[in-house]
Amino acid sequence: MTYSNTIAPMAELKTQAKRLRVRLKETGVEISHSASLELIAQQNGARDWNTLRAQIGNAPPAPKVGERVTGRYLGQRFAGYVKGLAWLGQGDQYRITLHFDKPVDVVSFDSFSSFRQRVTGVIGIDGRSTQKTSDGAPQLIVDRPEA
Asked: What is the distance between the terminal CA atoms of the chain, rounded to a whole angstrom?
């Protein structure tokens, strides 16, 4: 099986299948919804829809660009919004760019400060970066609002 460098979230794949079905109908070709799902799966390098579904799993959706989030960056609490987002690999990690409402001091020394208001990091589907600080904590933790 050929894997795509990026696989969109499940909701986006289903939307693509609906758009494909509508577009084909406009050109005089009618297919079932399940047939459109199978075509989307094949476009993403999977043998069939069930295989693609298994690749994605039941992971929570990634935050959306513009969505408000809170969390911790280098141990400092922040609130802000998602400025940019890109899926990496098989969709289990994201490169995320955040813009904080207020700059965060990323230095823990009393005699020196370094403020950041926009940061980019890589987080997993759990919202935590795999990179750690010197004390073993994730460099970046992005909390998702309750649905």
From this structure: 35
